[in-house]
Design brief:
7 strands, Rossmann fold, 10 helices, alpha/beta
Length: about 270
């Protein structure tokens, strides 16, 4: 169902890889709600995904950009403003990567140049994106910038590895830069801490299938899907949330406030009795 929440609004969506990704679902929902946007991803990620299909479906232009490159980001933002016909109203940062996770390197045995690459891609890029937007004065008043996070920024999930540190860094950047964006431009900056979601990136984490089942049993409302997250993101892009900023917003079916659930206790008891 569409409500026209983003009619006439313009933006950039980072990180749509394939139809399983939250950024992909968000782009579809933005389009349904009347918004227009530029799609962007790193050239290597674009070769792996199917972003052209999404662009055709939504009428969006694709502008490749390495989000760790200031030069690429400056070009992306200036071209997006030109293509879309004015300043931006929303930006989604849906980018995350850990070489240590990809290579099966334990948290206690990190290769630190890989660690630094993960910081830059997963968190430093968010600062760079906002710095370029800020310096180019590319955001409209009451615009909204959102990045996707995960609760491992606050709690220990051993196999999430150094991505947990990356997400903690990401959330800190959102608060710190969000202050300046709010004070100087009346622009909101928030992060969404999403349920474990079976995206291409999520499936790369060791033990992911077991954890998604555990989270489903722990959460009173169950896990939030990629489409659920897209809907929530739309609400943050809309004018209905103008005074929400500097927040890390849990979108996880209640998981983040749970100690234990009946379903989890029952599963443990059945295991002990078997």
């Amino acid at each position: 169902m569409s409500y026209g929440l983003l009619k006439g609004k313009r933006g950039i969506i980072f990180g749509a890889l394939d139809e399983n990704s939250i950024a992909w679902k968000t782009a579809e929902r933005v389009h349904e709600e009347g918004g227009s946007f530029v799609l962007t991803n790193a050239p290597i990620a674009m070769r792996m995904g199917t972003i052209n299909q999404l662009a055709e479906k939504t009428g969006a232009k694709i502008i490749p950009a390495d989000a760790t490159s200031l030069e690429d980001l400056e070009k992306l933002v200036s071209e997006s403003v030109e293509v879309l016909g004015g300043k931006l109203d929303f930006v989604l940062h849906s980018i995350g990567m850990s070489v240590n996770v990809r290579k099966g390197r334990a948290y206690t045995d990190q290769k630190y140049d890989w660690t630094a690459k993960g910081w830059d891609v997963s968190a430093g890029s968010f600062h760079k994106v906002m710095q370029v937007l800020y310096k180019q004065d590319a955001m409209n008043e009451w615009g909204s910038i959102v990045a996707l996070s995960y609760m491992a920024a606050q709690r220990v999930f051993p196999d999430y590895n150094d991505m947990a540190d990356n997400k903690a860094f990401l959330e800190s950047i959102a608060r710190s830069f969000g202050y300046f964006f709010g004070r100087d431009k009346n622009v909101r900056v928030n992060t969404i801490s999403q349920s474990p979601t079976p995206t291409t990136a999520g499936k790369g984490v060791k033990g992911f299938d077991g954890f998604i089942s555990y989270a489903e049993k722990m959460s009173p409302l169950g896990n939030a899907s990629a489409l659920d997250c897209a809907d929530y993101t739309i609400s943050l892009f809309s004018d209905l949330t103008r005074k929400v900023t500097l927040q890390n917003l849990f979108h996880d079916g209640g998981f983040s406030n749970m100690g234990v659930s009946d379903a989890v206790m029952q599963a443990f008891e059945e295991q002990q009795n078997s």
